[in-house]
Design goal:
EC 2.7.11.1; alpha+beta; 11 helices; 2 domains; Kinase-like_dom_sf; Phosphorylase Kinase, domain 1; two-stranded antiparallel sheet; kinase; protein serine/threonine kinase activity; non-specific serine/threonine protein kinase; single chain
Length: about 300
């Protein structure tokens, strides 16, 4: 056989696939950076849709990225970021995802100093909706924090970053020591086997506290100082918060995980039900919209064929 007849090497094939895939996009500007690499805003030529392209270098923590891809492919919820396509080269992986223009919840809290209860309630209900959807499907996030929650320009929530997420079975206890130490549950600090759902609830309690106070509940200059504050349950709840809101926070930040409520229980709390009189029932409540279904279908078919 001539050189032209020989099959391409795997590396060459991957590079050709990479270039063919990226002909579909205009890469615009960097919109985020982190330990994983960076995120670029891009434009999908066929559908004229803006997307976010997350670039990850293949390294010793590639298992986290593979885990995130595996989980996101199974999720379809308006409050969870949508994964459109995965492009792989020898050295890098690119995740083409839904673009959310409003930025991180953390920045919204910082800009406002703290959120009023009405606004916090609306955002938190959407976060709960996303987490409940995951728990109902045997998935826990394990890294819930304001940095991993995005808002669009209309205030709709998108939960992101499932790299530490995992699947679980009812009754199964997890042992991985993970998650931001500022949002870490007592049982994780103690390295005890834990229920991932209850760990998510603790983290949600920290997120809600941050939203309505503008600060973390458990503070310290070192990890050990934060750990001590968590294990001693040492935090203050400002008096300007309503009794109902204080009660929600206290319930979620219950030290004993067996006494800590589930997401299902929190969803029904009176503070979260305020303002629902005369509105659609939870079963038919209007949720934030997905990207235009016609565009998504076109996008999916096009990326699969090419």
């Amino acid at each position: 056989k001539t050189d032209q007849d020989k099959p391409l090497a795997t590396k060459e094939k991957r590079n050709i696939n990479y270039y063919n895939s990226f002909l579909k996009y205009w890469l615009l500007r960097t919109i985020g950076e982190g330990h994983f690499g960076y995120v670029k805003l891009a434009y999908h030529r066929l559908t004229r849709t803006q997307v976010a392209v997350k670039l990850q270098q293949k390294w010793e923590k590639s298992s986290y990225l593979a885990n995130e891809i595996s989980i996101l492919k199974t999720l379809d919820h308006p409050n969870i970021i949508r994964l459109f396509q995965v492009i792989e080269t020898v050295d890098h992986v690119y995740l083409v995802m839904e673009y959310v223009s409003g930025g991180q919840l953390r920045q919204h809290i910082k800009d406002a100093q703290r959120l009023c209860e009405e606004k916090a309630r609306g955002i938190f209900k959407q976060i709960l909706c996303a987490v409940k959807y995951c728990h109902d499907r045997g998935i826990v996030h394990r890294d819930l924090k304001a940095d991993n929650i995005l808002l669009d320009t209309e205030g709709n929530v998108k939960v992101i970053d499932f790299g530490l997420g995992t699947r679980y079975s009812i009754g199964e206890e997890l042992t991985d020591w993970c998650g931001a130490f500022t949002h870490r549950a007592p049982e994780v600090f103690l390295r005890l086997p834990y229920d991932g759902r209850k760990v998510d609830v603790w983290s949600l309690g920290v997120v809600l506290y941050c939203m309505v106070t503008g600060a973390l509940p458990f503070r310290g200059e070192t990890v050990m100082q934060v750990r001590r504050a968590v294990l001693e349950l040492r935090y203050d709840i400002p008096r300007y918060l309503s009794m109902g809101l204080r009660n929600v926070i206290v319930q979620m930040l219950t030290k004993n995980p067996s006494e800590r409520p589930t997401v299902d229980h929190i969803v029904g709390h009176p503070w979260l039900r305020q303002g629902e009189e005369g509105s659609p029932s939870p079963a038919v409540e209007r949720l934030p919209k997905h990207p235009d279904p016609a565009i998504v279908r076109c996008f999916t078919v096009f990326t699969e064929k090419h």
